[in-house]
Amino acid sequence: MFKARRLLFFYVETPLHVGAGRASANVDLPIQRERVTQYPMVQASSLKGALRAEYRHQYNLKDDSPEVEAVFGKTGSSGENWAGAISTGDSRILLFPVRSLAGVFAWVTSLHALESFRRTADLVGQPIPWTLPQGEPSADSAWVGSKSQVVAQGKVVLEEFSFNAQPKNEVDAVAQWLAANALPQGGAFQYWREALPGRLCILPEDAFRDFCLYGTEVQTHVRIDPDKKTVEDSALWTAESLPADSLLYAPLMAMDVRNGKDQMDADNVLKEFDFLQNGHVQLGGDETTGQGWIAVKVYGG
Q: For 196, which of 14, 31, 179, 253 could close a Cys bridge (C-beta 3.0–4.6 Å)?
């Protein structure tokens, strides 16, 4: 049983590609998605690998050092083996940015996404204080805050789709809580924290799913022949990325170290990751072209 638990929030600062490893009908290299909802996600194995790399870098350790193996575990065909003391869950989407006719862009979400987040928060012992409106948005409406910046003449126009704006006090409460607890602190994110209450929209489930499916960023890549300076044969492909300004979350949980040597309890295991607070982590591919940088906020403890 896990003894110490936290929530991690990930604010995507540059397009994020964590690949699914298979082509789809629309793109050669799609991103990872939940099987049922098709919402974008980052699988726990990918996230844990990135945290391991950041842990090594932070403490200047080798991958097979005793400190790394104590926290992340050790496996092999010979010698002692043990499970790691740190565990992550899948990273799931909470807010998705969409182009807006008014206010440039909106952060959209749905009741399903918000309630899934609440369930994860409860799992890690971090109950959420806000409540959501009763019922759900109708197919042609969007719930917005009392001072929404994305409403024009009573409508919220996202991409080519129009919704009737319905102001809700509960949307203000959700947005203010997320701005204070989910977005990174510090001057670099002050504008975004202040902007969130005016840009948050809670959409019908189908509309939110469709934006998550078709509103991602698709980049075209080519490989150039270094001598001819032309595109090589069969060297054209497309890659999907989660757009910048998306917000994801994941649980981070710990147990006592289980190698039989170190006496590090679960609380101290989590303290080893205090460096994540308001820091940055690189996830996914295309690191050398500036992709996959995310800002981290730790909640709880």
A: 179
